[in-house]
Design goal:
Blueprint: E1 22-25, H1 37-45, E2 54-57, H2 64-86, H3 98-107, H4 116-119, H5 129-145, H6 149-169
Parallel strand pairs: 1-2
Helix pairs in contact: 1-2, 5-6
Amino acid sequence: EFDVLVGINLLREGLDIPEVSLVAILDADKEGFLRSNRSLIQTCGRAARNVSGRVIMYADKVTGSMQSCIDETNRRRTIQTEYNSVNDITPKSVKKGFRTILESIEERDYFTIPVAAEALAEYVPVEKIPKLVKKLRKEMVAAAKELDFEKAVELRDRIKKLEDVELALR
């Protein structure tokens, strides 16, 4: 049993830990990829699987992404509450054994090769991928040196997609 789990993006990336009862999002008002409306909703959703789940967003101001996330969460809560009332359902927390959680982590050690059309927003000929990856790696390192970690993460993810496509097509 764990009382505290600290992770960077573990919850947003889909690690299945249903017993999460508190999610704290630090620097929630720092706009960008990791604090976009979609990312905030995904992260907050992890606490929703627990009956007493709560989310705390630490911020100096409420951004558009934060407000959109809060509004969407309230909208979904209203719909779920009405559905539960109509169907006489009492909410219960999802229970999952620690072994099952570990197995889901182990499965993440393997990857599936995405279909080329799904992997990239734009077409890149397979023979040009290595050169593009090299260029993107330099940009990623530069972004990290400038402490622009959100840009570095986006570049890392794009590099991964390019490498997966190259592997699938060669």
